[in-house]
Amino acid sequence: MLRRQDVGHRIVVRRIVGIRDGRTLFSDALGELVELSETHLTLATAQGRLRVPHSEVHRAKRVPPARRPTAAAMTALELAANEAWPAPDQHRLGGWLLRSADGWTGRANSALPVGDPDRPLPAAVDAVQRWYADRGRPAQVNTPLPLAGPVGAELDTRGWTASPLVLVQTAPLTTVVDAAPPAAGLPPVRLVAEPSDDWIALATDRKGGFPPAARHVLTAVGQLRFAEVYDGSELVAIARGTVTGPDRWLGLSLVEVVEGARRRGLGRHVVAALADWGRQAGAGAAFLQVEQRNTAAVALYQGLGFRTHHTYLTRREP
């Protein structure tokens, strides 16, 4: 029997998928339990999210984690990621961080529940809701899993929704550089300290506008570079790299290649250039965040040596 404490942990579910010749047919699914309601459970599997009604569950149980990172390691990486994507409006709720950036991106407009909020969990969620209500925005909570599993369970009881699962992936920089040797025939990657108008236009095309807070999120980091590749006069590929945290993480974000220039290796090209810069800046490993359903990007990063460190869901109040 699964309990709410199991949310955020890996489980295996044997589910009923049909009946043939009077015999019940079963199928097994392995994944991270991201939701447990009165009517169903939801798993984040390697193939995507799987929603299983309780009536179809034959049995379910937790499985031992495969070399899970420690809570301290997850917290340190999440705080380095926060430094790499800094919201201009931040407030502490005990050890939690509340962040707002004119609504630009979920990461910069969600609470990060790492550490102790210095109050009971229900009261902490109430405080999060009030803080965002004062800013005229719905409350969002970024729940790293399994670290914030109890928070996710509390949000389940309140009917909060969840965005698609995000993979937080890491790789040693030596692995990334070795996996992406210089590509012949590609235009050079330029690394600059400030984003150009062209860079911003391409980076924000999918993010809906560019409010004043967005420039702060992109540029308010001590060590960063913006990668750009021009093919003639056209900007065809970009990425952003930062070095943050006591452990000196290279954070990779906004890796974009224009549609007409894809499948030429430009994504690997810009990542390799930033990995080389990060290594020179004192970083030893890189991290990135990618939606599990973005299979093309996941495949690209897997080929560069990235593996999933942990995952997170962005939860939103109803």
TrEMBL record:
It comes from the Bacteria. Pfam families: Rv0428c_C (PF24553). Residues 187-318 form the N-acetyltransferase domain. This is GNAT family N-acetyltransferase.
